[in-house]
């Protein structure tokens, strides 16, 4: 299977050919895949070099001229390093762009902590008006990328990862998808966490929701899944643990509920290892998820926390 990021260059090449508003800005990373597109559209495929702040600034400038810029590099260089430019050049100027990351929280551990971005979505949460897509499969990534480029002049972040589910699910760029129904709790699996969650919750009487668009947060889907009486909710996110707990709490403010936020811990893992080892170390493999989810639900059954 190809990766989510493998879809980026072919999709963008098609969109550049089809839509004269579309532009792509790179900071070295990803230039080879768009070499032919750059030859065909030299004024709309721009490589600024290893200058991530300029990447955002140039994209904002293109947006202010009426283009639809798509900005691409690794997540840590796209959101964290140039955050001031994301905040001011895009946000303060109300300029729309599509930010497409490569690598997720720990997709390339050998790159070290400089190439990891577990706090990217939480950081964007400090700003207003961002749509955030977290696909769980290359087909979902392609659909959400096309959706993002077509989304007028909105500010959109598409978070790509090497980690993937075995099959794609229908995505519409807005709503959560009910994958399994149950009556003893709700588990929201974000993007590539769906397969581990399905494995972890096998035999449990829980509803599983698949979330590929997390901002805006689909509070209505969560409310329907919990019901008027409320429920226990587990959020399983492939980035910083607890990133969406406030959004879920807001959605359920008027019904009884408990929330457990699972994801990447704040504690830095300083050994390179592999992606799979990082997943297990953060308890995001099926075994770790099963243990923590059942302990949480068992606590509710006993009247504890």
Automatic annotation (TrEMBL):
CDD domains: TPP_PYR_DXS_TK_like
Source organism, top-level taxon: Bacteria
SMART domains: Transket_pyr
Domain Transketolase-like pyrimidine-binding: 2-168
UniProt cross-references to InterPro entries, sorted A to Z: PDH/Transketolase (IPR051157), THDP-binding (IPR029061), Transketo_C/PFOR_II (IPR009014), Transketolase-like_Pyr-bd (IPR005475)
Protein name: Transketolase
Organism, as annotated: Streptomyces chilikensis
